Amino acid sequence: MTQKRILVVEDNLDNRRILVYRLKRIGDFEIVEAGNGQEALESIAVRPPDLIFMDLKMPIMDGWEATRRIRSLDGSRRIPIIALTAQAMAGDEQKALAAGCDDYVAKPIVDPNIVRFKMERLLGPDFVTPTNPANGNGAAARSNAA
Length: 146
Known about the structure:
Layout: E1 4-9, H1 13-26, E2 29-34, H2 37-46, E3 51-55, H3 63-72, E4 81-85, H4 92-99, E5 103-106, H5 112-123, H6 139-145
Parallel strand pairs: 1-2, 1-3, 3-4, 4-5
């Protein structure tokens, strides 16, 4: 199976590092990082990822606008986008879905099983290939997140 590409768009370096660390513990992915929506669009133009984690509040271009622009791009496939926000307000999840995101995660991301569960739901269990046997096959993530 080919290594999947994940784009992590997050302006806060600490938050970005935490998510990248979690992703590396979940599976063997090619992880590309961007600090704002404009960098994300530039990265997608070079090589589209298989999945995007998109922070919603960033300088230069926020995740709301970046998601709308990604959704307007011509392309034969739709890239799943999981919205990230630390300021989880009532209605934000619905706004993120309405803007074109496929799912939503509130930060900080403490439980990597939540990330794994959302990735498996959007892309299928074969997308998440454990980096080591101790990470399991995702069954624990499904039972813990239910």
